[in-house]
Amino acid sequence: MSAEHKFYWLMGGVVVLLSAASVIGWILAQRVSSDRGRGLVSNLNARVRAWWIMVAVFAVAFLLGKAATLVLFALVSFLALREFITLTPTRAGDRRALFLGFFVLIPVQYYLIGIGWYGLFSIFIPVYGFLLLPALSVLAQDTQHFLMRIAKMQWGMMVAIYCISYAPALMMLNIPGYAGQNALLLFYLLLVVQMSDVLQYVFGNLFGKTKIAPVVSPSKTVEGFVGGAASATAVGAAMWWITPFTPLQAGVIAFVIVLMGFLGGLALSAVKRSLGVKDWGAMISGHGGVLDRMDSVSFAAPIFFHLTRYFFAV
Amino acid sequence: MMVMAGLLTGLTRLLVGAYPRWVGCGPAPVQRIYFANHSSHLDTIALWSALPPELRLRTRPVAARDYWDQNRLRRYVARQVLNVVFVDRTGTRAESDPLEPLREALAHGDSLIIFPEGTRRAEALPGLFKSGLYHLARQFPEVELTPVYLENLHRSLPKGTLLPVPLICTVRFGAIFNRVPGETKSAFLERARQAVVELAS
C-alpha cells in the first residue's frame, strides 16, 4: 500500500473511532450519576478531546510536511516549558537563562532537527544547554538555592524541549523502503503512548487492586499496568503495517514505548508531587495542561527514535 | 483594527496565558471599574485580553501618559487598539485634575481598568492604594467595583527588566466590591486592597 493509501485508511479509521468515542462519551456524561462515574467519564472525555487535537497534528504533519510539524512541536515545547517554569520557583538571577531557553534553545533545537544535523541536535541541550544556562545564572551573582535553580531549569529544558523534540525528529530518519512515510511513525508513537495511557486507566478502574507506587501516584495499579501494557502492546503489534517493522518487531518496540511511557508518567507525577500540584496547568479545558498529556510521550520519544534509528535507519 | 486586537491578545496569551478566572462575579455588560494590582507593564494588556471581546469594546484601561505616549508603536497600541484613557502621572499641569479624563469616560458609560497603587511593585501582593478609586467610587455610585488579581506577572516582566519570561498568569475577577455608607477614605482603600489580596490565595 502506498503512503497516501495508508494515510487515508488510517485517518478514516481514526476519525470513525474518535467520533464514536466522542458520542459515547457525551451520552455517558448525560447519564452517569455517581461521583466516581462522573470523574471517570470526565477524564475519558478530556482524553478524547486531546486525541482529536493530536489527530489534527498528525494530519498536519502528513499533509504539510516537516516544516509545519516542527513549528507545531516547537509550540508544544514552548507551552510545556512555560507550564514547567511557572511551577518551579525561579529568582531574578535566572531571567536571562530562562529567556535564552524559551527564545533561543527552542528555535535552535527544532531548526537543527529540520536540517537533519543529528550530531548536534542530539547533544545541543544536554551539553551546550547544560553548560550555558548555569553560566548565565551565575553571572547574576545570586547564589541562593543556586544548585536547585539550575537543576530545575535543566530538567525543564530536557523534558519540555529535548525529549519532546524527538517526536518530530522521527520525520528526519532515512529508512530504506519507507521514504515519505515517516509521519506514520510519529502517528504510531502517539497512538501507542495514548492507548497505553488510556488502557492502563481503564484496566485500573475495572480491575485495579494492588497499587504500584502509592506514594507517587495513588491511581496506578499493577492490574492496570499489566492489562493496559499488554493490550497497548497488542495494538502496537497489530499496527505493524504502518511502520517499517515486522509484526514481532512492532510488538517489541511497542512494549518498549509502553514501558518508557509508564515510567515517564510516574517520574513527572513525582515531580508534580514535589512541587505540590496535581496538574501542570489548566489549559486543556480544565483537565491539566500540555505537560499532563505529553509526559508519557516525553520519555518514550527519545528511546523510540534511537531504537528506530539504530536498527532501521541508515 | 480588530486584527491588531486579535494579534495582541494572541501574543499575550502565548506569552503569559492571561487566563480569566471569574471567581466572584461573571462577565456582564454592565459598567464597571476593574481595579487590580500593578507589578508589570504587561498588566494592562493581560487584564484586557482576559475580558471577552464584547466587554473589551466598552472597557478602557487607564494608561500613564509618561509611558504609553513615548513612541509611535505604544501610542498606536494605546489609542487605536486598547482605547486607553490617558492620565497624567507627573502632575506637570497643576491646575487640571488628573482624574478628569477618567470622570469623562465614566460619564460616557465606559468601564475602566485602573491600578490604584499608581506604580509597579516588585511583589506578588499589592501595596497601599492611592485615593483615585475612592473619589471615583463616590462620584459614580452605580458603577460596579470589581477587584482583580493578576498572578505571576511580577515574575514575567518586573519593573526594570526588558526581557519577558513566558509564565502562566491567571486573571482572577473577584466579587463585586460593595460601598459602605459613611466609610472613611483610608478604610475604603484598605478594604479594597484586602479584596485584591484575598484573590491571591
Describe the structure.
The complex is a heterodimer of chains A (314) and B (201). By secondary structure, chain A is mainly alpha-helical. Chain A has helices at 3-31, 35-64, 66-87, 95-114, 118-121, 124-139, 146-169, 182-207, 222-238, 247-275, 290-312. Helix content of chain A is 76%, strand content 0%. The radius of gyration of chain A is 20 Å and the shape is globular. The two termini of chain A are 23 Å apart. Chain B is built from nine helices and seven strands. In chain B, strands 1-7-6-2-5-3-4 form a seven-stranded mixed sheet, with helices on both faces. Chain B is globular, with a radius of gyration of 16 Å. Chain B starts with a helix and ends with a helix. Chain A binds chain B through residues 78, 81-83, 85-86, 90, 92, 95-96, 98-99, 102, 281-283, and chain B through 14, 17, 19, 152, 155, 158, 161, 163-168.
Quick one: which chains have the greatest interface? A-B, 16 and 13 residues
Would you report the number of β strands of chain B? 7
User: Helices and strands of chain A, in N-to-C order?
Assistant: HHHHHHHHHHH
Return the structural class of chain A.
mainly alpha
Strand content of chain B: 15-25%
Sheet with the most strands: spatial strand order of chain B: 1-7-6-2-5-3-4
Tell the overall outline of chain A: globular
Which percent band covers the strand fraction of chain A?
under 5%
**Low confidence ranges of chain A:** none
Give the SSE order of chain B as H and E letters: HEEHHEHHEHEHEHEH
Total strand segments of chain A: 0
